[in-house]
Amino acid sequence: MAREERGMAPEGSVAGLPFVLDDLAPPAAGIAEGAHVTFGRWQRATAVIFMSGILALGLLSPGLLVWGLYGLFYCVFVAGAVIRLAAILTPPRKRDCPALADHALPHYTLIVPLYREAEVARELVGNLARLDYPRDRLQALIVLEADDLATRSAFHALDLPSFIQVLVAPPGLPRTKPRACNIALALAKGSLVVIYDAEDAPDPLQLREAAARFASETADLACLQAPLRVETPRYLAFIAEQFRLEYAALFQVLLPAYARWGLPFPLGGTSNHFKLSALQAVGGWDAYNVTEDADIGFRLASAGYRLDVIERPTLETAPTSLDQWGPQRARWIKGHLQTLAVHIRGETRRRPRSLLALIVTLGVPIAASNLHAPAMLIAGVGVAVNWLADGEPSIAGADLTLYMFGWMASAVCAAVGVLRSGDRPRFLHLFGMAGYWMMWVFASPRAIWQFFVAPHRWDKTSHTPRTGRPTP
């Protein structure tokens, strides 16, 4: 049978290395109910009515509008703190799955979409080569863009292990990570699939743990999320340290709790292990959603599948400057808004548990994070007004209690997450969390603007190689 008839693209040979040429077929049109539509008809009508009401209230009674927004912040901030406290008190479920012998391990496909990552190509290949998995059951598909000549040249120059194959995606829109993943998905040979990013250093035994878990669980388990662990910065870097605390809280405390509660949750952008059959059943990733990881978790749940977590981590680096952090955070906010818009009008709203999870895991965190800076600004103006009127600054006891409650819940959640990862929290940085939340003011306006005018634009996060990295 011809190679094309088996669904494989033609191969060329560059310096003896396997390269799939850029005449690959583009992926199918995509998800019917996806982020290519920003708002459905009733959502547009609701948005117009809501914005008109906000505008009218702002014109007729600005003070009432301010206090209304402040009250909304109170509600979501308290809800976010309560969710964190509940997650802290929920011990992670321990799974004792027998390891699979090499002959019993399923075939595994690694998908690694890259764009402008020439500098980390060698490091990435080294990280993948350290995976402890039989090479005859391992397939790594590195997906590059046709116009990314520098990264293509970097991989041409490497002595690639036999299990790694480089694909060159055909030109097309949208230029997003999920589109690249869908191209590779059509060539996947493994019954299990995992996504990795350019900067990832997965634990060498992560694939074996995931394979053993899938083998021991019921058939409805579709995805296992590995914890993403930010490397401890080798020098003082405020953003990197806060990123580390943020990831520790999410991947070591919140996601294990959501899984224990039986709730679907937004996946991380990498190190999510899927059953190929489940991915195919939901049509792969939504190429138009810039946080395809958050979206696909809820689509799997809407199709009747279940999500869970594993313990073997993946090491990642964190952004260290506002120039790196801002665009990445704006893309995350925009993508989470896309995911909310898609699933509120889709099948998720017909499933009470999934709808609750959507609110708890996406709605509340988005609202709390993005309302924090405006609420603090309102509180600051109130303090200044009191200072001018009474000659001394003052803050309402309810405000102070709210901030302390929210900060303490978040700080404890982050500290517990760091401890669970086997490290020690740096308590000075826990006090910086409130300031870190204020930084959303640099990302939120950009995210909201792009949500309406450039919803499918992918703001690239740059990565640089590093040496002396500790192994997981």
Q: Secondary-structure map with pairings?
A:
Layout: E1 11-14, E2 17-20, H1 41-60, H2 62-88, E3 108-113, H3 121-129, E4 138-145, H4 149-156, E5 164-169, H5 177-185, E6 192-195, E7 201-202, H6 206-216, E8 221-225, E9 228-230, H7 238-260, E10 272-275, H8 276-281, H9 292-302, E11 306-309, E12 314-316, H10 322-344, H11 352-390, H12 397-420, H13 427-430, H14 433-438, H15 444-453
Parallel strand pairs: 2-5, 3-4, 3-6, 4-5, 8-11, 9-12
Antiparallel strand pairs: 1-2, 6-10, 7-12, 8-10
Helix pairs in contact: 1-2, 2-7, 2-11, 2-12, 7-12, 9-10, 10-11, 10-15
Provide structural commentary.
The chain has 472 residues and is an alpha/beta fold. The chain has a domain at 63-92 and 239-264 and 317-461. The protein is built from 15 helices and twelve strands. The chain has helices at 41-60, 62-88, 121-129, 149-156, 177-185, 206-216, 238-260, 276-281, 292-302, 322-344, 352-390, 397-420, 427-430, 433-438, 444-453; strands at residues 11-14, 17-20, 108-113, 138-145, 164-169, 192-195, 201-202, 221-225, 228-230, 272-275, 306-309, 314-316. The strands form two sheets. It has a nine-stranded mixed β-sheet with strand order 1-2-5-4-3-6-10-8-11, sandwiched between helices. Strands 7-12-9 form a three-stranded mixed β-sheet. Helix 4 links the parallel strand 4 (138-145) and strand 5 (164-169). It is globular, with a radius of gyration of 23 Å. The two termini are 43 Å apart. Mean pLDDT is 86; it is low at 1-17 and 468-472.
